[in-house]
Amino acid sequence: MLKKKLIENxxxxxxxxxxxxxxxxxxxxxxxxxDTDKNEYLDFISGIAVNNLGHNNKGIxxxxxxxxxxLTHVSNLFLIPKQIEFAKLLTERLSRYKVFFCNSGTxxxxxxxxxxxxxxxxxxxxxxISVTGAFHGRTFGSLSATTPKKYRDGFYPMVPGxxxxxxxxxxxxxxIIKKDKKVLAIIIEPVQGEAGVKIADKKYLKELDILCxxxxxxxxxxxVQVGIGRTGxxxxxxxxxxxxxxxxxxxxxxxxxxxxxxxxxxxICDFLTPGSHGTTxxxxxxxxxxGISMVKQINKKQFLKKVTNKGLxxxxxxxxxxxxxxIKEIRGLGLILAIEFYSSKIAKKFxxxxxxxxxxxxxxxxxxxxxxxxLNVKNSExxxxxxxxxxxxxxxxx
Length: 398
Ligand SMILES: Cc1ncc(COP(=O)(O)O)c(C=O)c1O
What we know:
Elements: H1 2-13, E1 25-29, E2 32-35, E3 40-43, H2 46-49, H3 58-70, H4 81-90, E4 98-102, H5 105-121, E5 127-131, H6 140-145, H7 149-152, E6 162-165, H8 170-179, E7 183-188, E8 191-192, E9 198-199, H9 202-214, E10 218-222, E11 246-249, E12 260-264, H10 285-298, H11 301-321, E13 327-333, E14 336-341, H12 344-356, E15 359-360, E16 362-364, E17 368-371, H13 379-397
Parallel strand pairs: 3-15, 5-6, 5-7, 7-10, 10-11
Antiparallel strand pairs: 1-2, 2-3, 4-12, 8-9, 11-12, 13-14, 14-17, 16-17
Helix pairs in contact: 3-10, 4-10, 11-13, 12-13
Residues 104-106, 109, 135-137, 189, 193-194, 222, 224-225, 250 line the site of pyridoxal-5'-phosphate.
């Protein structure tokens, strides 16, 4: 009855831009969440890579509570010590890089593009290249860099000056640069989350980094989904030995409170001069306090090593346990994994069946089931999830 009313009111009062499961989650603890019908789920969606320390994390909760007692919001007209503390933390291994805080991933990419364009003005450059499969957000700049048509349909015209190359194909980028001397920046996700966990080749990103540096082109790493420890490194690009000029972050960055950021190379960061860009809520003390706690807990050698080991354990055991002609590939980097099916129908059936058996996973780009457990997931929880997936798959296979 309660559920029926919820669905009714959801449809009555909320714009219908999301297709939602008829499940209402009201509580979370560690890797588990609970719904209004008292069902328990192993949460391997993690709010789509937001809850990287699971639910009800003590450190984050205490940081938020403490900050609530002091100050929740103050304008960027004033000095905000927590912003400085967080920026210092994020740039520990990025000497002299500087940070701008905003509220979401799409905003982070907008800031990256605006900074790049401002820098480009002095170099008479304006073209920004993104790649096939890319997802960078839903505001107009980010949407213009987002490749799949389904996100852009109905919203034309896009922002001019965006061009498209093939993912994992350096020659396709080279041929654009050869023809267009005004290429200003290339944006890339080290692992394409929305495209179905497509991992950039080592050689490709290394060559791309060199290409950018040789041609005075900015390299933007979109780390919105895979930053903050998801791949076993604080930033995904650290797997590749490259040095992006701009890094965009969001999702897990705020520890569950909306927060986005760009981290920019010292040679370009101050092109965003006073008044040229901003946001009222960006770097809000509450988001900063929560985010600092999140990043401090994750950015430890031992913690990140465990993420790597758990990722390998998960991947190996998934491959061993899920043997089916319906599966094309199982892949992952750290704790972002995907099972790619040959049929989108089967992928959907598999996802829905996992959810009704108490395991939250999500479908991505039709054929891929994406798995995003919390980074502090236990091995026993990984084993439990594989057991559910194996049973579900066997039933589908019958
Ligand atoms: C790589 C990437 N960039 C940008 C975004 C947009 O982030 P947000 O939804 O916070 O605007 C997303 C969201 O899924 C993403 O995965």
